[in-house]
Design a protein that fits this description.
By secondary structure, the protein is an alpha/beta fold. Helix content is 40%, strand content 15%.
Length: 481
Amino acid sequence: CILDTANQIIAHNASRKDKTLWTERETGDKVTLFRASDERSEAAWVCDRMQTLKTMGVPFGKMAVLYRVNAQSRVLEEMLVRAGIPYRVFGGLKFYDRREVRDIIAYLRVIINPADDVSLRRIINTPRRSIGEATVAELARDAAANGYPIFTSLQEPHDALSSRAKKSIMEFSDHLNEAIATVDTLPLAEAVAYVVEKFGLRAIYEKGDSDEARDRLANIDEFIGAVNEFAKLTENATLESYLENIALVTDVDTMQDDQKVATLMTLHSAKGLEFGNVFLIGLEQGLFPSMRSIHDPAKLEEERRLCYVGCTRAMDRLYISYAQQRTMYNQTQHNMPSQFLSEIPERLLEDAITARNAPLTNPAVQSREAVRASRANRTPPPALPGRLGGAYPTGTPTGKLGIPGVTQGLSQAAARAFAEQSAAMRLFAPGDRVLHKKFGEGNVVELRGRGSDTRVLIEFAAYGVREFVSSLAPIVKVNES
């Protein structure tokens, strides 16, 4: 099914020479398609599928997540850390390791803790302000001799420094002191945006007209977007709490054994590589294919070739996803599903929710008879007619399950599958596997209270433990048989 899917997509390229990939393996599982509400829901779903594969004996080293642009990795990386899944970014740096992002973080750390000499050394001449290495070394010597941090040396530069160096240091010191005083008066998101603009951290790259400069600007916007997201999700969010949150992500010690870590990479980096299980995320019009290629036939065909490459990186299982709403570069957009999805026949796709109840198989050893038998018992996914000119299954909640308070819970296919047990789902028990509209799948860990006031505590791989009123929460049990 994987190669069939890839061939169906690439067949829409008019300039392509007619050829079809084939395999000696038996027919494998259908391609799993998931429609997420947003990028966090998408990342949570990826984490949950990875955990499920791991319990089936598949090492993380045989899993890869492919995406169109580097900025997509930020939310995914944070979710993987929270889910305890080790990973590496192939062919690039992890999001919080990128130079422009580290510069912003260093400024924020100095503003919170002026005694942080390591961070201060990083930013003292970024952007360039005529404070060279020799000047910094003199400031460090003066600070060490007097037993105070370099920040204190900035306030009254040593006489051994030139007048030009002293002027530059005093100007930087004044700006830093002003920022320290101002940040305390601003909400978190405004404080970070203020620091970025005040110290010209965007201006460094706005002067350039290269792809690298544009990528770095995009990463700065994505970082500011991450701050906004944290502020919305965290009560009484502060700069200190945000930096602690970053530390949880950046301080993770991932294992170097490739068999024990999942791989994250852009589609361009994936050429020539293969993985047992591939997650191809972000198939949305304007993202993949990119906005610049939609109205350019030549560029659109190149994007389609990339999609073909992404599909053919998978040897055993292929998972595809897209989000109805995505916040990236600090901009929230509502995108249509990628036109590439409409080019895949419905017979090759399977609803992610429906697939959750089907046992995982090994395409390398299963027989055709076993494949036919397993598929014969599956509930066909609902069609999705629309502007894309095709119909395909989805995993976004649209059906009504008859559970109090649930007007949106699961796809229509899943709603039918769960309807018969709706009465039993009014109450939950510790150990139950459940599905939440926003947070994905999790395990019930505790029940509190009685009757309509009963509260259920659920642990989600990417979101931790959350508490809900059982009679109102959009949650249903998952059939794990």
